[in-house]
Specification:
The protein has one helix and 22 strands. With 253 residues, it is mostly beta strands.
């Protein structure tokens, strides 16, 4: 700030804070009678810094990977448009980037693995995986490693289907509403790719729904497979099946 005329600071207690930073041609006069400091000249910013944000959409992944350049802004945002391809995002070295932030958001249906530089870590781990579509993570450098300061994950999803399809689960808890009027088949993803995920499939119209997987993975309980075709059927309106994924497949619960 600049003073065209003398300014007054009416408390000696705030003078140290007022005087911090870089200053040019400033003169101060303290009046003991009025307990006032008169200041004239130009004051620096008190050590404050500017903040800027960059935005990059990434849709090309040579070798299913992308390397982030050393950020020039205080925060860089990367939208990872990876469609159905699992990709790896390589972070730059945290060294020399103290307080710099990088935010990464997954747009595709396949996993995004964030890999720290060489032996550097992200909250103590070499990598961090974005398991859910539209999930977001923000990391900050402490000049040696990266630390997570914000993480947003979609935990619930509702889908409506009316045709034969393979389900894509973007959240740990998913309700699938089936509005078909003729028989359709829904194929679940392999359980080991989404362990702990829970899906409820509900028949909402007149068409039958058959539920299966690409391999024999549906269990009535933890040990008993439901037949060799691994099919469940919703035979009446309002009926539903709830399943949970694990390393060996899907359990009916």
């Amino acid at each position: 700030m600049s003073f065209s005329t003398n300014k007054q600071i009416k408390s000696k207690a705030i003078a140290p804070a007022f005087l911090s930073g870089s200053h040019t041609n400033i003169s101060f006069t303290y009046n003991t009678g009025s307990d006032v400091i008169n200041a004239s000249g130009s004051l620096g910013g008190g050590g404050g810094g500017s903040s800027s944000t960059g935005l990059t959409t990434v849709s090309s992944f040579p070798g299913n990977a992308y390397t982030i350049s050393s950020p020039s802004n205080s925060e860089e945002i990367y939208l990872i448009s990876n469609s159905s391809t699992a990709v790896t995002i390589n972070l730059p070295t945290a060294v020399g980037l103290n307080t710099k932030k990088i935010r990464i958001k997954r747009l595709g249906t396949a996993n995004v693995t964030i890999d720290a530089y060489q032996t550097e870590t992200i909250d103590g781990s070499l990598t961090k995986i974005l398991n859910n579509q539209y999930s977001t993570i923000t990391v900050i450098s402490n000049d040696a490693n990266w630390f997570i300061v914000n993480e947003a994950v979609i935990t619930n999803d509702v889908q409506t289907v009316s045709t034969t399809s393979t389900l894509s689960l973007i959240a740990p808890n998913t309700l699938v509403r089936c509005t078909n009027t003729s028989t359709i088949t829904l194929t679940l993803p392999t359980g080991s790719t989404v362990p702990g995920y829970r899906v409820e499939i509900k028949r909402c119209s007149t068409g039958q729904i058959d539920i299966g997987t690409s391999t024999t993975q549906i269990f009535l309980d933890s040990t008993t497979l439901i037949g060799t075709t691994t099919k469940l059927s919703l035979l009446s309106v309002g009926q539903s099946w709830t399943l949970i994924a694990h390393a060996s497949g899907w359990d009916v619960i």
